[in-house]
Amino acid sequence: MNASPLLSGLMYSILYMLIGTLLASLLLLGTSIPESSWMTLTFCIHGMAMLAGGFISGKRSGQKGWYYGGTLGLLYSVTVWIVGFLAYDAGFSVQTLYLLLLALGLGAIGGIVGVNMKK
């Protein structure tokens, strides 16, 4: 039984995000670099997660990779924002908008690549 392309992509993107966050946390623990200077790394982690999730979503759908990847980016961004809002009382900010645009773009690119890969 095949799972939904969006659900599969979301699960993979969350897995990649968790692994990236764990590695970044270990790096933060081992260095004296302040947390406030890690915004670029955070966006890189989200970007890699979206490329991977979009790839899986596009490959599983077999068609309209840009649509499935972009939709996944929207779903991923909303999920990250809701978790941040509920856990840290973080409101909507410019960084949230950047994450949304990054996730939409890289998710769509990952979906396009995923559809065009041979099975």
Could you characterize the architecture of this molecule?
With 119 residues, the protein is an all-alpha fold. The chain has one domain. Helices cover 80% and strands 0% of the residues. The chain has four helices and no strands. Helix 1 crosses helix 3 and helix 2 (39-61) packs across helix 3 (65-88). The radius of gyration is 15 Å and the shape is globular. The relative contact order is 0.20.
Annotation field: number of helices:
4
Overall average pLDDT? 88
Low-confidence stretches: none
Q: Tell me the β content.
A: under 5%
Question: How many beta-strand elements?
Answer: 0
Key features of this structure:
119 residues; mainly alpha; globular
Quick overview of this protein structure:
The chain has 119 residues and is an all-alpha fold. The protein has helices spanning 5-30, 39-61, 65-88, 94-115.
Blueprint (SSEs and pairs):
Blueprint: H1 5-30, H2 39-61, H3 65-88, H4 94-115
Helix pairs in contact: 1-2, 1-3, 2-3, 2-4, 3-4
